[in-house]
Amino acid sequence: MHPTKNDLADNVRAASIELLQARLSDAIDLTTQTKQAHWNVKGPSFIALHELFDQIHGEMEEHVDTIAERLVSIGGQAYGTARTAAERSTLPEYPLDINEGSAHIDALSSAMASFAKSTREAIDEASEIGDEDTADVFTGVSRAIDKSLWFVEAHAA
Fold this sequence. Notes:
- This protein is mostly helical.
- Helices cover about 75% and strands about 0% of the residues.
- Helix 1 (about 10-40) runs antiparallel to helix 2 (about 45-75).
- The longest helix is centred in the N-terminal third of the chain and has 31 residues, at about 10-40.
């Protein structure tokens, strides 16, 4: 860890950094998955899905930045390269050979649901270790990803 005058205990900071890094890798992976869907979607709902996936991509980039900045602000080193995210992500692998809108809806909503679940778990873990600010970061991300998941799943109805 990097030295900081942040008053969180070293063990709390270390645990939070580990938690933040895990979700950072997932968030970077989800960001690239939304772009994969955006570029390759086809079908009758093309424009609606193309624009929705691009909107979610932009929101995910903001979440990536928020998570990484929290991680660094408490003395961590953010590992945010594509290779690192690919090695560490816990999200399901995105199928690269799909085009139909419904297939992208299914694949992306599965990845988003996985990320939402692990983010909610991170809220509890951060609270348990005594880092309410990190829990708050995850709460904001959780709220936003649930809304985005709702938007994507609405296209499957």
